[in-house]
Write a structure and sequence with these properties.
Number of helices: 1
Number of domains: 1
Helix content: under 10%
Radius of gyration: 22 Å
Structural class: mainly beta
Strand content: over 45%
Number of strands: 18
Strand order of the largest sheet: 1-3-4-6-7-10-11-13-14-16-17-18
Order of helices and strands: HEEEEEEEEEEEEEEEEEE
CATH topology: Lipocalin
Length: about 350
């Protein structure tokens, strides 16, 4: 999979850069100063800035997970428990996850835009035990910080191509603990999905292509997250590869509506935390990690084109999965809501 992503990035960059050199370039550039000048609010690294521009952003994302997917099929959490013929003593029932993200983008030149992003995450998981009991665990903290450089290959003929080279820093915790039904009142380390960070330095590579007309815009973005090495708990989260496509319609000079489709592939966790017991709960078994997904979303962007709050944006998106094929058995994603503010200076 990694070779496919590398090939796509290389070929697309070569072809489109050659197009820039050979076409009759005019001055009709792709424009960010309109409501559809930014992608749906859930998409990161979708745009660049002109020299000297500075942008601050805040996003709030809420994801709801409930019930179980085994491969492509939905099942009840109780089916995973040993009294019902399953392999585990505990099964998750649902998990809400909330994340607040702060970002800053700055362009030292027309070609290069730098970005930094920090986030704070809270998760809560309800469980069902083999004896019919119930309990809840919680986890919270600052996640992995992200640094990136966006390089604009060209912006002409109402088209833009830019690449992303980034790194995710292991600032998020991988040792969060809580009390469980079997821990006799003592805090124990939580499974992989309840940890806030990856514990590894991760390379983030991407390529984004944008097209714009008077009232419609389109974007396509390929991304890869490559985990580098193994963390201090002897495991590595799976690499992630995604292809995002979206289009938006400018309804007015201050409003646009968007639709988005994403294909996502996540590899299984490699290694294992020796303090976790895979037979206790599905989220502690690395077999139950990774999968292939298709997600869809609809949303809108509101934009202030002039006045005291010029270049202030409000974005909203509601997303649901249309296809989930997971490895083993995992909680099923139900919906994701993203709301954000962006302000450029």
């Amino acid at each position: 999979m990694r070779n496919y992503i590398t090939t796509i990035l290389f070929v697309a960059t070569s072809l489109l850069s050659a197009q820039n050199a050979t076409l009759n370039i005019n001055n009709e550039k792709w424009k960010g100063g309109r409501p559809d000048g930014h992608a749906p609010i859930s998409v990161m690294a979708d745009h660049t800035h002109s020299k000297g521009e500075l942008m601050f952003s805040y996003r709030f994302m809420s994801m709801a997970m409930e019930n179980i997917n085994s491969g492509r099929h939905t099942s009840s959490p109780s089916h995973l428990l040993k009294p019902n013929g399953g392999n585990y003593m505990v099964a998750p029932v649902k998990m809400p996850m909330n994340m607040s993200m702060l970002g800053v983008m700055y362009a030292p030149s027309n070609r290069i835009t730098l970005s930094v992003m920090a986030n704070y995450m809270t998760t809560e998981m309800d469980h069902l035990t083999a004896m019919g009991g119930k309990f809840t665990t919680k986890s919270a903290g600052f996640g992995d910080a992200k640094l990136a450089m966006l390089y604009q290959f060209f912006n002409a003929n109402k088209k833009q191509l830019h690449g992303k080279l980034g790194v995710s820093l292991p600032t998020g915790a991988i040792d969060n603990k809580d009390v469980t039904a079997a821990s006799v009142g003592q805090e124990v380390i939580l499974p992989y999905g309840m940890q806030i960070g990856s514990g590894t330095f991760d390379a983030e590579l991407g390529l984004t292509f944008l097209i714009q007309s008077e009232v419609v815009s389109f974007g396509s973005q390929v991304n890869g997250v490559i985990r580098l090495g193994e963390n201090s708990n002897n495991y590595t989260l799976g690499n992630r590869y995604s292809l995002n496509n979206w289009f938006a319609v400018k309804a007015a000079n201050w409003m646009s509506f968007s639709a988005r489709v994403e294909g996502l592939a996540v590899e299984q966790i490699k290694g294992a935390n020796p303090t976790l017991h895979p037979g206790m709960i599905i989220t502690a078994d690395t077999y139950n990690s990774g999968g292939r997904f298709i997600n869809s979303g609809v949303g809108f962007n509101l934009y202030v084109p002039s006045g005291a709050f010029k270049d202030l944006r409000l974005g909203f998106e509601y997303a649901i999965p249309v296809y989930q094929n997971v490895n083993g058995s995992q909680l099923q994603t139900k919906e994701t809501i993203t709301l954000g503010l962006q302000y450029a200076l």
